[in-house]
Amino acid sequence: MSSAADRRRALFEELKGATPEERREGFRSYREAIVAERRARPVPRWLARRAVRRSLAVLAGTPVVCGAVAALTPRESPSSALFALAGVVGFLMAWLLLRRGTKLLAEAPDTALDERELEERAEAIRMAYVLQVCLLILLTFAAIADSRWNLDWQPLVLGALLTAFVLPSAVAAWRWRDLDDAED
Questions:
Q1: Among 35, 51, 168, 171, which one is least packed by beta carbons within 10 Å?
Q2: By CB neighbour count within 10 A (0-12 exposed, 13-18 middle, 19+ buried), where does 67 fall?
Q3: pLDDT (tens digit, 9 = 90+) per residue, 41-81?
């Protein structure tokens, strides 16, 4: 049994007879402790390199690209399913590795971040919104051109949603600077 499971079990035992407010506070403090623990872990050396982080940021666009290719191929074809699957796998890889590479910067609660990190996250989210608007403009153009291409919209919209979900982490990874970057 892992220590995380033991801590979770102990928390549930402790909060059995607690009031709803005490439970909320207990779960909030437990979540904060987990986030702090995850943020305290050092980033693996291979993931700390700027080139790798930027490659992962580009990988975040995989779902929308694969969704677009799947939307253009016939729905029943195996290539459509393979591109849709590649988009989902690309999303999962980008999401998990970007979260680890940026130390949960885009997902961590405000209480877990210092002022510099809060500012970096705010800037990353601003830039992610701009990229999201560009993505929506591209989808609008695709909708206009749909009469010629007869698109299958499901993989395209799913790819756009998955890309939008990971954009803040991707922008944070692209912009992330640490002491190793000064040495390169």
A1: 51
A2: buried
A3: 998 999 889 999 999 999 999 999 999 899 888 888 899 89
Asked if 61 and 163 touch (Cβ cutoff 8 Å), the reply is: yes
Question: Is residue 174 pLDDT above 50, yes or no?
Answer: yes
Nearest to 94 by CA among 33, 183, 153, 163: 163
* Two structure tokens written together for 158: 């799913």
Rounding to the nearest 10 degrees, give the CA dihedral for residues 35, 39, 42, 48.
Answer: 120
If phi over 0 gives left and psi between -120 and 50 gives alpha, with beta otherwise, what is residue 177? beta
Would you kindly state where each structural domain of the chain is located, as residue ranges? Answer: 1-40, 44-183
- Those residues whose C-beta lies under 8 Å from the C-beta of residue 64, and which sit 6 or more positions away, are 87, 135, 156, 159, 160, 162, 163
Whether the CB-CB separation of 178 and 49 falls below 8 Å is answered with: no
What is the DSSP code (8-state) at residue 177? -
Q: Look-up: residue for tokens 């970057």?
A: 181
**What would the two tokens of residue 120 be?**
């970096």
Poorest-confidence range of 87-96, 141-150, 154-163? 141-150
